[in-house]
Amino acid sequence: MNQILKRTLLPGLVASSLLGVNLGAVRPASADEGWLRDIGAGAATSVVTGAVTGNHSVVKNAIGGAAAGAAVHAVRGNRHKSNVVRDAAAGAAAGVVTGELTGNHHPLRNAVGGGATGALINILNR
Length: 126
Description:
The chain is 79% helix and 0% strand. It is mainly alpha-helical.
């Protein structure tokens, strides 16, 4: 009886708790248009740099670039002074971490894609 309850109730409980957490964290995207622009620019930049550096996993590069774009946007905050080194470093760090999480085990190539994302976002926000 205990095994039957675990097999039937536990998946539903996990799914409902994940759904509740995700719905509770949703914020309107219109709060800041810069997030979407930076995420899109990051995804596109990392796909291109991945093709140039020989890291041909397009989906993983796009995911890493989107994460790098979000990280750069978060690091920039509401500051009006641009710092290309800070933005490139934040993008590179996010690219390496996301690459490891997605199984794209090319840290140097991931850092190049993330750094390029940070530099591009810095140029776009001038």
